[in-house]
């Protein structure tokens, strides 16, 4: 029987805060766009690795929840659908994911351009100040408790 470490959420929060700060401060540290991209990929890998224990615990909890007698799980219902209905059911999910990715790309470009404008105005470490705020917010989100199951 595996036990979940009690500090996994705090570790994930700290690593997420540090990784987010580093991600947004990298333009101040690495000028080359390609090297900055590789560095961001490495930072993302570290952040995901730190979140694995919490993600695994959430997945195990979701799989361990029992369905009331006679009720099929969402997975069972989805598997029983014909392919055309599966496509119709997944279309809104794909739309939301695409819109989220597009919105995130626009926000990231705005953040970068704002930092570049601050650099052009003579601000020292123009990306690092906002990066500290983004990192603190990202780390704080780990401490928001998920909503309790309502029975």
Q: What's this, in brief?
A:
This protein is an all-alpha fold.
Question: What keywords describe this structure?
Answer:
151 residues; mainly alpha; 75% helix; 0% strand; extended; disordered N terminus
How far apart are the termini?
A: 27 Å
Mean pLDDT: 87
Helix percentage range: over 70%
> What kind of assembly state do the chains in view correspond to?
single chain
Number of helices: 5
Total beta strands: 0
Protein architecture, described:
The structure is a single chain. α1 packs antiparallel against α2 (33-64) and α1 (8-29) packs antiparallel against α5 (128-141). Helix content is 75%, strand content 0%. The chain is built from 5 helices and no strands. The radius of gyration is 20 Å and the shape is extended. The chain has 151 residues and is an all-alpha fold. The two termini are 27 Å apart.
Topology:
Elements: H1 8-29, H2 33-64, H3 74-80, H4 83-120, H5 128-141
């Amino acid at each position: 029987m595996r036990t979940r470490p009690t500090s996994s959420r705090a570790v994930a929060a700290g690593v997420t805060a540090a990784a987010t700060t580093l991600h947004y401060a990298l333009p101040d540290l690495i000028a080359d766009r390609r090297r900055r991209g590789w560095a961001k990929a490495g930072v993302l890998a570290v952040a995901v690795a730190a979140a694995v224990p919490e993600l695994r615990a959430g997945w195990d909890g979701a799989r361990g929840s029992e369905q009331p007698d006679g009720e099929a799980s969402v997975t069972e219902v989805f598997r029983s659908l014909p392919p055309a209905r599966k496509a119709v059911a997944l279309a809104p999910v794909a739309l939301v994911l695409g819109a989220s990715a597009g919105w995130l790309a626009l926000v990231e470009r705005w953040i970068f351009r704002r930092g570049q404008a601050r650099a052009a105005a003579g601000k020292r470490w123009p990306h690092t100040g906002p990066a500290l705020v983004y990192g603190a917010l990202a780390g704080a989100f780990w401490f928001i408790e998920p909503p309790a199951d309502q029975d």
